Amino acid sequence: MKVVCSIAVLWICLITMWQSAGRVNAEGCLKQHNLTSAQVQAVAPSTPVADVPVAVKCYSRCLIQDYFGDDGKIDLQKVGKRGSQEDHVILSQCKQQFDGVTNLDTCDYPYLILQCYFKGKQSGTIAS
User: pTM for this structure?
Assistant: First the structure.
């Protein structure tokens, strides 16, 4: 039986993996983007980025903003020792897939990175 997970499950996993004493605050991000957890949970991880509400995509940016470098992309050094070696490999592969894409809106990139990470965690690999 295939398990269908919502993107909210991904956020919970990422918060657990990456949470620091810093700014990662799911409730604060929900409030900032006028969302409820039910609205976030309603978005399936397989939803194409163009079909995801902007508020949900920007919520994803809010959750992981402490891990962006000066270039606006995920900085693996800022992720540091959070997560497993597998997590870092998957994130590295996701970065390779999306860091060079130039026609993305500000909140598309973090959503795509998290979506890619989620798919990688589910399958053990990422899809191009």
Answer: 0.79
